[in-house]
Amino acid sequence: MSTIATLTDVAKAANVSKMTVSRVINHPEQVTDELKALVFKAMKELDYQPNFAAKALAANTTRIIKLIILEKVDTVEPYYATLLMGVAQALNEHQYALQVVTQKNADIGDCDGYIITGARRDDFDWLNQLNRPTILFGENRHNYDYVDSDNKYGTFLATSAAINDGYDQIIFFGIELKESFEYSRERGYMDTMQKDGRNPQIVRFGNHSSEAQNYVENHWHEFKPNTCFVCSSDRLAIGVERGIQHMHGNIPDEFGIIGFDGVFLDQIADPKLTTVKQPVMTMGSKVAALLLQKINLALPMSEDHDPDRNNRVEVMFSPELIRRQTTRNYHRS
């Protein structure tokens, strides 16, 4: 009858201490890749299975992270699918489970921490009542730790590209939301236009392709050839594209289009969209890693949610302009 391998057996097989084995299992980020390889090899050879459930019970933890989505998923599903893969990948490396919930059922069952997405101004009174470490996916003005892409820089890239491509009229199609990320995207567009001596022109919609398409078709007489539409999402950009095609405009010679997000929708557009691509999967992994750091630090909840604290964590990823077929120079790198 075979015996069940123990932590001591793994330590002997890997020629390391039991403390090192424990650290590899519970805090792999603190251990070198070489040590992890040695320990994991020994665990595999001995068929050693750490009892994470028992450890969690003994430590009064759940090893569950809740990701709460506070907006309508049907308008952003490709984006969130990519985000969830990044979050799940990082949590899996640390033996945490991911539970995706909405605000309505967020209180069902316990967890060790929260990742919040789609937070709007009206949500923060509710967020302040959460009694676990919390981090937001998306910049905010409420002093919560967050991970996001540099939205202002993204629209700077898009607007600069439109200017360099020689478009005379450059119009910004924004999302009708009074939120930090949208303010930043509009600011990047406006600053770049004003620096070039141009007058900004902003139109806002709900984040639906049909609204952008209808606007283009209903205001077609206002758009002269040699116009570029810089959009706050790929969804709006697809609507612009369809509207121009329906009105028999030429893309990209007469009309250019630049989207924002770079997650799936830019690829299925025809022609394919030039877009500002966010590293969404990497951002998802980072937001999960930061939350686990907060959990391990075990900060008092009063400090985590203190609006006056001066040690907020803000992580911004740089987006990238991906040129495709809706701007003139799509063949250039």
UniProtKB/TrEMBL annotation:
Gene3D superfamilies on file: 3.40.50.2300, lambda repressor-like DNA-binding domains (1.10.260.40)
Keywords attached to this entry: DNA-binding, Transcription, Transcription regulation
One example GO MF annotation: DNA-binding transcription factor activity
Signal peptide: none
SUPFAM superfamilies linked to this entry: lambda repressor-like DNA-binding domains (SSF47413), Periplasmic binding protein-like I (SSF53822)
Keyword Isomerase: no
Sequence ranges assigned to domain HTH lacI-type in this UniProt record: 5-59
PANTHER family (alphabetical): LACI-RELATED TRANSCRIPTIONAL REPRESSOR (PTHR30146), TRANSCRIPTION REGULATOR, MEMBER OF GALR FAMILY (PTHR30146:SF154)
Protein name: HTH lacI-type domain-containing protein
Organism: Lapidilactobacillus dextrinicus DSM 20335
